[in-house]
Design brief:
220 residues; alpha/beta; Rossmann fold; six-stranded mixed β-sheet; four-stranded antiparallel β-sheet; 10 strands; globular; binds adenosine-5'-triphosphate; binds magnesium ion
Amino acid sequence: MIQAKNIHKFYGDLEVLKGVDVHIKKGEVVSIVGESGAGKSTLLQILGTLDLPSQPQQFQTEILIDGQSFMNMKDKELSKFRNQNIGFVFQFHQLLPEFTALENVLLPTRISGKNEEFLDKAYSLFEDLKIIDRLHHKPNELSGGEAQRVAVARALINSPKIIFADEPTGNLDSKNADDLHQLFFDLRDKYNQTFVIVTHNNKLAEVTDRKLVMKDGLIL
Ligand SMILES: Nc1ncnc2c1ncn2[C@@H]1O[C@H](COP(=O)(O)OP(=O)(O)OP(=O)(O)O)[C@@H](O)[C@H]1O
Ligand SMILES: [Mg+2]
């Protein structure tokens, strides 16, 4: 699902990624752990098409997501590729405050332009995530755990092949965190979706299929 070779990233003189290779199979749940500043979020942003590696020609960088290279895609093509293949969950839910939970979840479907059929999918996600009675609440009327589950529903609405999560439960109590982790595994079992999860949660990291440890810009 992901084949990446020789990812480098510089911020000015600071080399944040020093030639990272990553191979992740379809249906794997992989965790990425490591000290603050190791480069985990930077790597996730690049694998998730939200950022580009530095000097890919020079370093002969390759990144394939489901066999496709996105590094040379133009903006429009890249947005479409991301929208169809990739879901994101961040530490802070990043829901839009002026929209209801349901509207937030349906936002990514506007690009695909097939709103009707997505309504059923949205309802079933709200059921699965146990937030069906919060459909019309706005983010500030939701608890942290509920808002985070809405963000997960938004990440899943387009049935992405791969979900990138950056400390998705960093902000939740341990019960909510455990529930959300379990959900990731359930989704993998049900839909064979692939999960790459940056986490400081050891309990989660230990139960994933594979734990990648990052240190100083490299995977150990
Ligand atoms: N836009 C940026 N400009 C300059 N330096 C940056 C930028 N983004 C990240 N960095 C630096 O790159 C390094 C890696 O950052 P990154 O966010 O990937 O770390 P991380 O492993 O996710 O850490 P954490 O666990 O604290 O989230 C850090 O030293 C950070 O200060
Ligand atoms: Mg980070």
